[in-house]
Amino acid sequence: MRSLISVALVVLLLAAPAWARGERPVKGSEAPATSPETAAVEPGILYPPLPTDLTPPTYDYAAPETCAGCHFILGLDHTSRVLGVWYESAALVNASCTAGPTTTTPGSPYACCEGKGTGTCASMWQLTGSGWLASRHAQSDHGSTENGFCAKCHSPLQASASAAFNNGVVNAGPIPQQRFQAVTCATCHPPDNITAQIGALNPDAIDGGAIAIYLWKGVNNPASYQTLSTGVNADGTSTEDLLCLNCHEQRHNFAEGKGTPMYDMMVTTHNHLIPGGGPVRCIDCHMSTYQSIGGGTTGLPVLEERFHDWNVGADLPYSCGAIGSVSNCHNSSYSKFTVTDAQNLIPYIKEQHIDWWSLPPFNGVAQAAVPAHGALVEFKVLEREISKIDAM
Predict the structure, then answer these.
(1) How far, in Å, CA of 76 to CA of 72, rounded?
(2) Which pTM does this prediction carry?
(3) Distance of alpha carbon 278 from the chain centroid
(4) Residue 190 gets which letter from DSSP?
(5) Alpha helices (H) along the chain
(6) Pairing of strands 165-166, 303-306
(7) Within 13 Å of residue 317, how many CA atoms lie on the same side as its CB?
(8) DSSP state at residue 216
């Protein structure tokens, strides 16, 4: 099946507009905070070949490669950015050449380079340094995980629903190392051909069933997906977080009966990103929105693009709602949080307040007293203290 898709897609992007050619994706502070202007979708857009040359030798990335090769959202190139690749034009590839081949060395950085700024290179997929390929989800094989039980979280599409772990023994067959798929797209996104069925079976599902938890009963089986709904759990957390907590069983270093400042913030903060408000969700920080596509003259609904590398530190200012972010959670009349503030705050997220003042930028220097009225109040004090120090 994959080979058939590859043959069908091995074509050039002839007269396609720039946004269909897969322009270099945005990352971090380069990303626009508002929806970009996009041109109307032109008929007959031809798509590039699958990015099959980017798979490491110990993995099988056929599934996500196929998603990026086919799923261009009518040319808006969203899914290739999610994967972590862009399709660089031949002109730009050749312009990046630094040296031609000699009798002992190939061209640099590609064998097709003939000199500085010149070569015979064709268009090619290149890594962005972001997206799924840069995440731990893409590198989830640890040797001991190469079986049908551990794969339930480490490579779900290869897991066995009946697999179990009893007395140190896994009752599931092995997965060959070079066939390990990792945590791929379909772990959270059912195939398009069954999404409508999943939505019909679960009318309250978020995104119409296009986001759901895969439960190892066959990727094209609607009964194999557990959908999610909006709402609040009894402990004050978001019901949407089940998508993450299905495998990530704890919130940061949460301790029963104690929590952490981060946990308390999640269950008590009014989240303006949710209509009507609600608790902070995992995705608000770990999959923050960095731009929107569609709308305008495209004839498509506006789609929020979220980071898919799950790296809060790399995704600033968006992940922490600092100045320059889309959410602006910490940019208001009460808080002017910068990227530097956020970088200084991140180490504190897993620490209790007794250890805060020993960390940079304070380094043991006495600071304002922390009130004993709960972790959320303490965290607000910390945020303001960091902002004050950074502004000096």
Answers:
(1) 6
(2) 0.73
(3) 22
(4) -
(5) 2-9, 62-70, 78-83, 90-95, 151-154, 192-201, 242-245, 261-268, 282-286, 339-345, 375-390
(6) unpaired
(7) 22
(8) S
Q: What are 22's two structure tokens? A: 């897969």
Partner residues linked to 166 by β-bridges = 169
Structure tokens at 209: 């069933």
Phi and psi at 290, nearest 5°, equal: -120, -15
Quote the Cα angle for 64-192-132, to 5°.
Answer: 25
Q: Which of 305, 300, 311, 280 is nearest to 290 (CA)?
A: 305
Which tokens in the block code for residue 298? 């495209």
How many other β-carbons are positioned within 10 Å of the β-carbon of residue 288?
Answer: 23
pLDDT in tens, the chain (392 residues): 444 333 333 332 222 333 333 333 344 333 333 333 333 333 344 556 666 667 788 888 888 887 776 665 555 677 888 888 888 889 999 999 999 999 999 999 999 999 999 999 998 888 888 899 999 999 999 888 898 988 999 999 999 888 887 766 778 888 988 789 999 999 999 998 899 999 999 999 999 999 999 999 999 999 999 999 998 888 888 899 999 988 887 776 555 555 555 666 666 666 677 767 778 888 998 999 999 888 888 777 788 899 999 988 889 999 988 899 998 888 877 778 889 888 877 776 655 555 555 666 666 665 554 443 344 455 556 656 666 666 65
Distance between CA atoms of residues 78 and 300, nearest Å: 13
Cα separation of 173 and 291, whole Å? 43
Q: How far apart are CA 44 and CA 15, in angstroms?
A: 9
Question: Left if phi > 0, otherwise alpha if psi is -120 to 50, otherwise beta: which for 209?
Answer: left
Contacts of 256 (CB under 8 A, 6+ apart): none
φ and ψ of 130, to 5 deg: -130, -170
Number of Cβ atoms within 10 Å of the Cβ of 91: 10
What does residue 101 show for φ and ψ, rounded to 5 degrees? -70, 155
- Residue 303 · residue 293 · CB < 8 Å: yes
Q: Determine phi and psi for 169, rounding to 5 degrees.
A: -120, 130
Token pair for residue 317? 């200012």
